[in-house]
# Entry
Amino acid sequence: MAFLWSSKRFTTPNLLSLPKYSSASLPPSIFDHHHSIPTQIPNGPSETHKFAFHTAQPRPTPDAEAICRILSTTRGFTVDASLAAVSAKPSPELVLEVLNRLSNAGVLALSFFRWAEKQSEFKYTTEAFHALIEGLGKIRQFKMIWTLVNGMKQRKLLTSETFALVARRYARARKAKEAIETFEKMEQYGLKPHASDFNRLVDVLCKSKCVEEAHEVFDKMRHLRLDPDIKSYTILLEGWSQQQNLIKVNEVCREMEDKGFQLDVVAYGIIMNAYCKAKKFDDAIGLYHEMKAKGLRPSPHVYCTLIKGLGSHKRLDEALEFFEVSKASGFAPEAPTYNAVVGAYCWSLRMDDAYRMVGEMKKCGIGPNSRTFDIILHHLIEGRRVEEACSVFQRMSGEFGCKASVTTYEIMVRMLCNEERLDMAVAVWDEMKGKGILPGMHLFSTLVCALCHESKLDEACKYFQEMLDVGIRPPAKMFSTLKEALVDARMEHIAMHFAMKIDKLRKSPLVA
# Structure
């Protein structure tokens, strides 16, 4: 069934034309107020264990940005034609960067990958396959993912990290059984699982809130004669901590000690975080003193945890005391710690001090980063300080040269939609797309639902169609909102058309 979209479009104002916020809370020079920072010495690891699932994104390049701009306005079946005029050679670095940028658009990522394969300069790499698997996993195209895994096997590019990545996508899709089965297939592909591989599996299950299944895998390690190590216990400890299950946290701690493992700084940090999440701040502080009494030096991550926890509960003075202690402890300044202080000031509605910390971060050379501004914008929006939020958003990229992330754009679009400033929301959306950043499901949902509520159904359908084109399955609530609006407007045929497309998307997996 074919139908035409209306040619009507919004007027998309330039956000830079907005007046600068000039109240006392945000004078033009507010970000330039600094406090001196004492000389610090380099610090050791400040975070808990991390598993990198594919190579970190390279520095942004104009070629990748240009390709993503082209692809963001291209239907999948015309990718070859759209990229025909691209002069950039598909080097491994360029291919990886584009695939990472297209992580929210799995169908486009696959189309680009197939285009790149046909170019004479193209070379297959493990990292590129991993980036593509990540994008396809987000839209649950697991059949296609296993086609890629088989292709990697033929080219001898498989690693244990490949199976960790596939398992993570299954776990995120609430398919814990399939995630576990993925690891069980490793030997079929010529890879022997080691304790580190089981740690990865436990980690992906915990991070996807499948902690009970993770604990079962943890117990299974012994049956395979793979003894859990300190990292195994730490991962499980963090899983139960994120669930705020203090009973299980304490059980794992006791088992650790029974097996001869002493709680280290990382473990203490995780337990403190569990108590902070449960709003048992005095217990968290008690653990801090217990750790110091044992001769363990608190890490920046420990201080960050306490600052963030206390700050979020408006125990600002105590949070700032820990910040001062952290600065006096000999650690170099770190962005996460400063971001925690920014958040603490925001929770107490001391925005001048939050801006001052941004200036301090700039002076120290540690930021600010997109996370810093996401924190500030969140609190400004919660306080309905819309004009100020718009001003901060502008200065973020202009004055500070800090590139907004998809999360930043999501915050701004949601705010503008809630304030019924849809022209401005679309302007932000267009700016994002112009920079080659593709929206995810939640951002599409926010804009489409807002357009429906304003009875701007032509535009709502346009963005809904765009979401389907990149292979994103709409949430049931989102489609219900669109369908109801279309039916009320006597556009049942369009609602039926979309229902058929969604059904096809659900039943028709991608093919090689």
Observations:
- The first helix runs from residue 62 to 72.
- Confidence is low (pLDDT under 50) at residues 1-48, 52-58.
- The chain has 26 helices and no strands.
- The radius of gyration is 25 Å.
